[in-house]
Amino acid sequence: MPTTRRELFKSSLATAAALASAPFADALAPKPAWPPHHIATPAQIAANMARLNPELTRPVFKRELFPNPVVIDSIELLHYKKSWLCRVRSKDGAEGMSISNAQQMASLWPIFMDRIAPYFLDTDARDLERSLDLCMVYQSNYKATGMAMFVPLATLEFAILDMFGKMSNRSIGLLISDKIYNHSINVYQANGERYISPEETIEHLKRDVAISHAKAIKFKLGGRMSHIETPPDRSARLIPMVRKTFGDDMVISADANGSYGPEEAIRIGKIMQEYNYAFYEEPVQFDDYDGLQQVADALQIPIALGEQEPSTWNFRHVLAHNAVGIVQQDMFYFGGMVRCMRIARMAAVLGKQCIPHISSTGLGYLYMMHFVSAITNSGPYHEFKEFNNDLPYTCSTSTLRSDDNGVITVPTGPGVGVEIDPDYIKKHEVMKVVKPANFKDAE
User: Fold this and answer.
1) Which residues of the chain have pLDDT under 50?
2) Are the CB atoms for 190 and 218 separated by under 8 Å?
3) CB neighbour list of residue 263: distance below 8 Å, 6 or more residues apart
4) Helices 337-349 and 42-52 sit at what angle, rounded to 10 degrees?
5) How far is CA 441 from the centre of its chain?
């Protein structure tokens, strides 16, 4: 938790009384306060696998809350300008709605209409988990596993969960968990820019922290997926500058987005360790599992991974091999709450944190907050991406904005807990999903 991190950080400096007034310098950089890292032996890997496997089959959706069938009667995709909404209705008149990832759905909506949603028509929505798996078999959708399938799948799942939440007067967090573990969320302020100077990056972080009041920040390293870093050696210069600017109590992390090979990733990671960074995100390309292992084994700083990862089995692999300390599955990119919960549970079994990645359009942070509310192993800070959202909505149980302490309250209303302006919804073109005449069940 953040308090513990700060206490550990301060205690590591207590032996030098002169630090209270001394200028920040390399020799006085804060010492790491992370748990000891261990390289997993074959026996430990096998033991970890045995502990992780049950979490892949343990039910997530609280089906027992709904004793009677809830048959899906209609599925609609609504489009207006850059907005993509999904509306689901049951044969008994229950309704749910979701706000999709607009950036991705602009390209992926035909997949939603033709390859994902038709499978769910006329099914019992209580069989959500089974349908999520079988629809990937329908039309051999599994052959396109990844964002192309999972963003449409998540869009539909969120609408179904919203429907169930409204039917039961529960938030969607209580549909995937026995209780709410986090009623509020500490935000971290992220800067997503590259190819600007360290000085510009710091000024932009200061500007945004002044709005969010965040007590944690994250910025970009490297050139992204092995592109050349510009300006040269920006990362190595920026890492100490951010610590010097924001001080000892700010929790700082950085995201390389797969910019490095293992050798350079380790060099950069050691600089981050020197300045007591909280975690190191995607040091090597996301599917370079051997390189990831090399980096993890060489460093103490927790490695974070998951924004790009489409495979449950790959998450299991890196967790069992102790190659990551933090999982970051994206609510949209990984296919929704149910699939993401399986990863969070696996991480929890091994004492690892879950800090989910969030998509930057629509209300992605809203789904992230509900998910974080429902897990036992959430990290101390989570990303917030709301500033440029012009979606007209109301929320009676939360401002959905960070307060003066950098904290957001999780909505407690039914479903996702927000109401979209009905007049705005009416502006959308409605595309109704139709089941093909030659429909063949995935089984």
Assistant:
1) 1-30
2) yes
3) none
4) 140
5) 32
